[in-house]
Write a structure and sequence with these properties.
binds zinc ion; 201 residues; alpha+beta
């Protein structure tokens, strides 16, 4: 038995690697059925093979670190770029979304009605990138002339056809004014010199 143990121990490394002959394999298996000591040695050797030793494990961990660092740098860079893109988009959108008067040449007037205290102006913008913001300004020169300043945005869902309708009811601001005395209405653009006569009695 002891002699057999020696042979079995010599053969065990090749047995684990699957390199020994069928005869040796059979010999080891039969022997191990009745020999606790050799079975124990075999189990121990198998455990050592399937679990890498501590030194290997540490080496693999340190080898992985540079990649982890690179990954973190990439994640931070991409996140920063995304945040920057969102902020820039918001700034550009905010800029384009500011209601502002436009060139009077880009506005086509379709209809103007003055009735009682009500002024109605219907028009379109010739510029497809401009949307009426729903806001306007009316200036009165104190005598007989009104200046109308509709405000447009470059991005808006408000009036995608480019159509604008101003329904202005004169109340407090022109109480003393008889609307019948107004005989000229101008469309005014970005600056006071940019005006166009759109209605005259
Ligand atoms: Zn044995």
């Amino acid at each position: 038995m002891r002699n057999q143990c020696g042979i079995v121990r010599d053969l065990l490394p090749s047995y684990i690697d699957g390199l020994c002959s069928n005869e040796s394999k059979e010999f080891i298996e039969i022997h191990n059925k009745s020999c606790d000591a050799c079975r124990e040695v075999l189990n121990q050797m198998k455990t050592e093979v399937s679990f890498p030793n501590e030194k290997d494990r540490v080496e693999r961990l340190t080898a992985k670190k540079p990649f982890k660092k690179l990954k973190n740098i990439l994640i931070i860079s991409i996140s920063s770029l995304l945040i920057l893109a969102v902020i820039l988009t918001a700034i550009v959108f905010e800029y384009l979304n500011q209601p502002r008067p436009v060139d009077t040449n880009s506005i086509i007037i379709q209809e103007i009605v003055i009735e009682n205290n009500q002024l109605t102006v219907i028009g379109d913008t010739a510029h497809s990138a401009l949307w009426y913001s729903g806001e306007y300004e009316i200036n009165y020169d104190g005598v007989e002339t009104l200046y109308l300043i509709p405000r447009y945005r470059q991005v808006s869902k408000e009036n995608s056809s480019g159509r604008f309708v101003i329904n202005h009811e004169f109340r407090g601001e022109l109480l003393e004014l008889d609307l019948a005395s107004i005989n000229k209405i101008y469309l005014q653009g970005k600056n006071p010199s940019d005006i166009r006569l759109i209605w005259e009695r």
